[in-house]
């Protein structure tokens, strides 16, 4: 069986970033669980901070450049997603939302998604339920029950509850992915933009 494609979208703005750190922890846990189920997986991380200017240009012009186009296709063709945003003003970041505004609204139908977020204090954790979960429900994705929020204090002592939440969420994502056949990749899909000769069209 072909390897599953797990795409991790991190919207952290700094380097190093606690958002990327959480994304990596979740991806490692999901990869471990999938391997325990006998499934091969390829993990790819998309850092939105590296695409910020391209995302803004796409919103204005309506066209992605090659790098952004590749990232959008990777997300749309992913077998599963881990998405992590910092929380600003009780919601996901503008960069995070702008990127997913460019995704085909039906491309993620049924795709398993693990949602996660980071913030300065635990009082922002409800943003996962009133902002991120509704966004991916709108995109028809299958959002795993457990969401993961990491406040600043969670990184100090590696609390058992925090570690357990990472493992539980990753396990739920892995369980959904284990039941899936890998999606067709670009090489398996006929190019929708292929130009058909006019004579061929007339011939039916």
TrEMBL record:
The keyword Oxidoreductase applies. It comes from Actinospica acidithermotolerans. The keyword Flavoprotein applies. It holds the Pfam family FMN_red. Residues 6-155 form the NADPH-dependent FMN reductase-like domain. This is FMN reductase. Keywords: Flavoprotein, FMN, Oxidoreductase. It comes from the Bacteria. GO terms for molecular function: oxidoreductase activity. InterPro entries: CE1759_FMN_reduct, Flavoprotein-like_sf, FMN_Rdtase-like_dom, NAD(P)H-dep_FMN_reductase. Coiled coil: none annotated.
